[in-house]
């Protein structure tokens, strides 16, 4: 692999590498959320109280890491805006071959929680320095491609071989060109003044600030220089060790619910596994509408256009609440709905599908976003009242999700959309 000399990177190439970073952070976030949603829970067959406590711990760890990936996505977009570029919240649908992201050699795929899935996560977050993980991750990449029935990409020269290396080149390019930073962009960036982000996030107005935030992204993800830390890599290494120990002591313990891989509700997504059960499809479509709304809300938050400070704060509050109150419980519900007669013994799951290609045009207005949230809540409420064969427990869950989503609509302050609309 021949790395590009950072001093030779021009601004457009640096922005393109930041686009790769934004896509990667987004892709990793939803892969982690998918695995968390598939974990077995108390009450599932074979899940004792002790096992349920362990799977809940893993679910919390995966969710925490996914939240940090959203933090990293926010940082990468703030850097884009500081460079005078537009934010990038879009991404392709699953699965994606390894060749999409340089020489990392891992496909992006939605798979239920198991040892192979944890291995792939660990390798996505591998540190940049050479270590035992290099040979391990070569084999992991081979197995991940075999699982997808994909050919391993042919070796070729690409600019980076790890996420840490990607960010390092971006950092050096920005430090070499401090004049790229546009201080006037500060008001368009997303900071802790809008969303209670931790660590505190301030607007980027200097190249040195951008470099410090890039160092933070790498430290939280890969743990460089000390990978045995609270980094994502260290967490996945710990989970892998726990799985190995359990496999030796309790070989009958299967911690992941048997969902399909790369579920799809859009028939044009030919790379996915099309869900055919009518009830699951209805819930899956509602999930994708809510997820698309979440992405559009983020896009609007990064591209303010005339809304008041109160409206922008209200939008940020809705975004913060949408994950725990809507997206996460709908995702968990989908993993308990049958995938269809074409997939006996398998269950559906959240597909996180986005329309392809990315729609063009200005971001939706605040009132339009509020109206769409109300429409999704209404869809969930109807599904909760309709005897579609999903069962009373699932219907109750949908009714609860609908009620919670409805409580978020007034947070669009001030908004012309009323609950009676």
From TrEMBL:
Domain Iminophenyl-pyruvate dimer synthase: where? 18-240
Q: Which Gene3D superfamilies match?
A: 1.20.1260.10
Coiled-coil regions listed in the entry: none
Pfam families attached to this UniProt entry: Ferritin-like
May I ask which residue range the UniProt record assigns to the signal sequence?
Answer: none
Q: Which organism is it from?
A: Micromonospora humidisoli
Domain of life of the native organism: Bacteria
What is the name of the protein in this document? Answer: Iminophenyl-pyruvate dimer synthase domain-containing protein
């Amino acid at each position: 692999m021949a790395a590009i000399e950072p001093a030779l990177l021009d601004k457009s190439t640096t922005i393109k590498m930041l686009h790769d970073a934004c896509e990667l952070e987004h892709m990793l976030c939803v892969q982690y959320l998918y695995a968390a949603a598939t974990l077995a829970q108390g009450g599932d067959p074979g899940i004792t109280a002790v096992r349920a406590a362990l799977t809940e711990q893993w679910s919390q760890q995966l969710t925490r890491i996914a939240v940090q990936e959203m933090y990293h996505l926010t940082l990468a977009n703030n850097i884009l805006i500081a460079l005078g570029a537009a934010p990038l919240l879009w991404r392709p649908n699953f699965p994606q071959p390894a060749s999409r992201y340089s020489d990392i050699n891992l496909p992006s795929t939605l798979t239920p929680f198991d040892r192979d899935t944890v291995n792939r996560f660990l390798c996505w977050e591998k540190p940049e320095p050479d270590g035992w993980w290099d040979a391990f991750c070569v084999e992991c990449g081979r197995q991940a491609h075999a699982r997808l029935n994909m050919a391993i990409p042919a070796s070729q020269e690409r600019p980076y071989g790890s996420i840490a290396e990607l960010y390092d080149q971006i950092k050096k390019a920005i430090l070499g060109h401090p004049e790229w930073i546009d201080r006037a962009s500060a008001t368009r960036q997303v900071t802790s003044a809008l969303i209670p982000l931790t660590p505190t996030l301030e607007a980027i107005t200097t190249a040195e600030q951008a470099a410090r935030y890039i160092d933070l992204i790498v430290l939280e993800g890969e743990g460089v220089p000390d990978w045995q830390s609270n980094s994502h890599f260290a967490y996945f290494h710990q989970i892998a060790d726990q799985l190995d120990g359990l496999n030796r002591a309790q070989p009958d313990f299967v911690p992941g619910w048997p969902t399909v891989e790369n579920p799809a509700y859009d028939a044009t997504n030919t790379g996915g596994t099309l869900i055919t059960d009518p009830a699951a499809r209805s819930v899956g479509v509602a999930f994708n509408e809510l997820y698309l709304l979440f992405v559009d809300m983020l896009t609007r938050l990064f591209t303010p256009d005339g809304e008041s400070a109160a409206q922008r704060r209200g939008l940020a509050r809705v975004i913060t609440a949408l994950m725990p109150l809507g997206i996460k419980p709908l995702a968990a519900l989908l993993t308990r709905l049958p995938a269809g007669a074409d997939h006996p013994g398998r269950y559906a799951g959240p597909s996180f599908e986005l329309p392809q290609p990315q729609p063009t045009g200005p971001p939706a207005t605040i009132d339009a976003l509020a109206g769409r949230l109300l429409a999704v809540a209404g869809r969930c409420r109807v599904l909760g009242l309709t005897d579609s064969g999903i069962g009373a427990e699932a219907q109750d869950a949908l009714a609860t999700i609908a009620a919670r989503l409805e409580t978020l609509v007034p947070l669009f302050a001030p908004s012309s959309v009323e609950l009676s609309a």
